[in-house]
Specification:
By secondary structure, this protein is mainly alpha-helical. It contains eight helices and no strands. It has helices spanning 2-10, 14-24, 33-46, 50-66, 75-89, 92-101, 103-106, 110-118. It is globular, with a radius of gyration of 13 Å.
């Protein structure tokens, strides 16, 4: 999944990437859908690509809605949503607050720490 994600992030079709992630959901270990989504968004952000990170999330929401599904309701997905909004506003103090509040969720994967700081 990581290699495929790297390919998509360097490409120019976040909606196709969203489709692949939606298709992947439910096929990974239970409770890891949110990790795959967060990792994908953070990969875009680490490249300074806020636009495609947002397009990825929007594409996933659209496709899940049409399949009568929704994004996982986890603290990690909530963190990603707030992070995208924070980066749009360039609000570093809010970022620090988010980071502190959702630390237990983002600490689940050691890669997150590195990618989150690269996204700033």
């Amino acid at each position: 999944m990581t290699k495929v994600s790297s390919h998509f992030v360097r490409g120019n079709d976040p909606k196709k990437f969203a489709s692949m992630l939606v298709n992947f959901m439910g096929k990974c270990y239970p409770g890891e859908d949110d990790t795959a989504i967060a990792r994908s968004v953070l990969m875009y952000l680490s490249l300074g690509n806020l636009r495609d990170a947002n397009l990825l999330m929007d594409g996933m929401k659209e496709q899940l809605k049409s399949a009568d599904l929704e994004l996982p309701k986890t603290d990690l997905i909530e963190f990603i949503k707030y992070l995208l909004q924070t980066l749009e506003r360039d609000a570093y103090p809010l970022f620090r607050t988010l980071r502190q509040k959702y630390r237990t969720s983002t600490d689940r994967d050691s890669v997150f720490e590195e990618i989150i700081w690269k996204s700033l």
